[in-house]
């Protein structure tokens, strides 16, 4: 739905509702400063409790294969994995098995 279509329909509905006892409400929000009230110290403690390693690796894979029902068409997807460096060899072994 285009914004102009939505606006036109909403305005038309508002005009037809005048005098019917139904109310039309609008709300607007300014999200420019929506994160200003987050407690930074508390957020930092939360992140430190979740992130256990100092370094992480992120690996992106592009997977291209034929569709199951039709060998003439192809399907693709992106996969992204994040893991600590000490798990890299384990990741390679398991991802190679999963892709077969």
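Q: What amino acid sequence fits the structure above?
A:
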């Amino acid at each position: 739905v285009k914004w102009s279509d939505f606006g036109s329909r909403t305005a038309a509905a508002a005009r037809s509702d005048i005098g019917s006892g139904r109310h039309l409400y609008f709300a607007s929000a300014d999200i420019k400063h929506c994160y200003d009230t987050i407690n930074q110290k508390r957020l930092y403690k939360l992140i430190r409790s979740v992130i256990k390693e100092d370094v992480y690796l992120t690996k992106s894979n592009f997977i291209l294969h034929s569709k199951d029902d039709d060998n003439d068409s192809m399907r693709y997807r992106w996969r992204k994995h994040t893991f600590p460096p000490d798990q890299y060899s384990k990741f390679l072994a398991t991802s190679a098995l999963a892709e077969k």
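Q: And what stands out in the fold?
A: The mean pLDDT is 76.
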